[in-house]
Each structure stands twice: as C-alpha cells, then as structure tokens.
Write a structure and sequence with these properties.
The chain has 336 residues and is mainly alpha-helical. It is built from 16 helices and 5 strands. Helix 2 runs antiparallel to helix 3 and helix 3 runs antiparallel to helix 4. The model has no long low-confidence stretch (mean pLDDT 91).
Length: 336
C-alpha cells in the first residue's frame, strides 16, 4: 500500500525506529508487574476473594500492556529486527490468548482498509450503514442490534473473541497453512501455560484468578479499538473517493486520557499517529505527538465524551456521521 508522504507522515518518520533500551524496559517492568500480581492473586485466595478481585485490576492492566506490546510486534515496530518481533510477538500471543501471526494478518487488513465502506469486515467492529440496516430483513436487523448493544459487545463479545474465536482460524486465513499453524501453535502454548498453572494451583483457584483478568483485559482491548474509530464525526467513504491519509487522521481519534491510562493502554490512544505510521513504536508515540504540531489536529475524545460513542451503531452516508438506533425514529429523519 502506497502512503502519501504528507507533512504529517514525514513528521512521524522521525520517531519510526525501535529502541532496545525503551522496549526492554517497558517489557521488563510489565512482565514483572503481571507475574507478581498473578502470584499475589493466588496467595490472596486464602485471605478474601475481594482482595483477589482488587488485584485483578492491576493484573488486567499489565495484561493489556502485554497485548499492546504484541500489537507493536505485529507491525514489526517494537524491536529493530523482524525475527525479534516475531519471537516476542508469539510469546505475547500465548500470554494474551492471541495467535500472533493470525491476528497480525487480520490487523494489517484493518489498517489497509480502515474507513473504507466497500472493504469492511477485516479486523473491525462490524458497522452497517443506515440504508443497509433499514433494507435488511427483520432477523438480520435483530442480530445486528444485539451485536451492537454495548452490554453485549463489550461484556460478552469481547471475551468471546479472545477466549473462543481466536482458537480457530476464520475467514481467508482458514484457507492457509500459516493461519492454522499460528492458531494451533498458540493453542498448544496456552495449553502448556494454563495447564501448568492448573497443575500447580488447581482448577478452581486458576479460574478464580484468570477469569476476571481475561474478562477485564478483553473488555479494555475491545473498547480501545472501538472508541478510536467509532465516534460521531468519524471517516467512512466509498472506495472510489477513499483516501488513506484522511482515513487515518480523520477516522482515528486521539483518545485524550490521563497519563496513567495512557500507561495502562500502551499509548494506543495516540491512534491517529499509529494508523498514519504503524512503524512508530508505542513508547515513542507521546513524544511524537508533543514534538510535531502537524500531528496535534486529530479529533480528540475525552473519557466522558467517549462513553456516549457506545450507543453509536450506524453510519449515515447522507449526513456523514455515526448515529444511534434511536435516531432512526426521530421526526426529522421520517420526513427525509
């Protein structure tokens, strides 16, 4: 895919290089926090499960950071060499229930087609246009409404995606040896990893510790990728007028979070820069944003404003914005 060398893209290239020092510092303390917190969670089971659940918040934060490290590896940006990113990415895949090469392939397609109405469905939250929804049959509309209900999407579909759907290759990758090898290899690694935990601590303690961690981190990961493309004035265009540069800077938000939440989320909130140039590793994204004025004009979303995006479900091509199901019953729409 050709990327136009706009001033914004050129500005980002200054930071498109990996650093062993920053990468291993980030990886080291994240793994340490995750490992120690999981250990404390098992120990706390003999004290009170409320303490275990409280510790699960920190464990889920570290788990989410590990997933984001694997995400950077999928773009070949976390470490200087391809083989290093492949090795580390596969390790992160086992820890976070994500087959690295399989997921990387899906995610690459998402980057190539984000905001393109004629190329939806690759690594995206499924999004229909108003016209598609209105013209669909009642059962299809029902299924879509259930799927896009935020309680279903984040509390059911999110863990389902990571725990179940990532265990089998789907779509085009189900037809390739690479897709099968990535998924089955990761499944074997997970079997060894989780099997060891169960052998040491027992099945019930394992479930009491890992279920809340996986639930919370899955919810967090899906929410972050959702909110940074699913906002009211997002970018969606048909293929004949779709533009990669506009799709990245107009269709990817800057999630304006407190510093500690940027830490938890592996700086994925700087999503417009990441989509513009995926070769910028997450640990360079804040500095890249601060140092380059050309990258500071993205659509900003604060925490409070972002919560309202959960109810947006349809792209209105005529109005050029995301709308909710309830807006379809508005009087002004009925008169159109």
């Amino acid at each position: 895919m050709q990327v136009t060398k706009t001033p914004a893209f050129v500005a980002s290239r200054v930071f498109a290089h990996a650093s062993y020092a920053k990468a291993f510092f980030q990886l080291g303390h994240t793994v340490a926090i995750y490992g120690m917190t999981i250990g404390l969670m098992f120990a706390s089971l003999s004290v009170h499960y409320g303490v275990t659940l409280l510790l699960s918040l920190l464990a889920a934060a570290a788990y989410l950071r590990l997933f984001m490290i694997g995400h950077d590896c999928s773009h070949g940006s976390y470490l200087p060499h391809k083989w290093q990113n492949m090795l580390l990415g596969n390790m992160m895949g086992v820890l976070t229930n994500t087959p690295f090469q399989y997921w990387a392939g899906q995610h690459a397609m998402h980057h190539r087609s984000t905001g393109n109405l004629d190329k939806r469905g690759d690594g995206d939250v499924i999004t229909r246009t108003v016209e598609e929804y209105v013209n669909a049959g009642w059962f299809s509309r029902l299924c879509y409404r259930v799927y896009r209900n935020p309680w279903v999407l984040f509390f059911f579909s999110a863990p389902l995606h990571f725990v179940v759907l990532q265990r089998i290759p789907l779509g085009e990758q189900s037809k390739t040896w690479g897709g099968w090898l990535s998924v089955l290899g990761t499944n074997l690694g997970i079997l060894i990893y989780y099997g060891s935990m169960i052998a040491i601590f027992g099945l019930k303690p394992f479930l009491l510790v890992y279920v809340p961690v996986v639930m919370l981190s899955s919810l967090g990961a899906v929410w972050l990728f959702y909110v940074q493309h699913q906002f009211e004035d997002a970018y969606w265009e048909r293929n004949d007028v779709w533009n990669y540069h506009d799709a990245t800077l107009e269709g990817s938000s800057f999630y304006d979070l407190p510093r500690w939440l940027h830490w938890v989320s592996g700086n994925i909130g700087y999503h417009h820069i990441h989509h513009l140039n995926p070769k910028v590793p997450n640990y360079h994204l804040p500095t890249c944003y601060d140092d380059q004025p050309a990258l500071q004009n993205a659509r900003k979303l604060g925490i409070v404003e972002s919560l309202s995006t959960a109810w947006l479900a349809l792209w209105d091509e005529k109005a050029g914005k995301m709308v909710s199901f309830s807006s379809l019953a508005a009087p002004e729409r009925k008169t159109q």
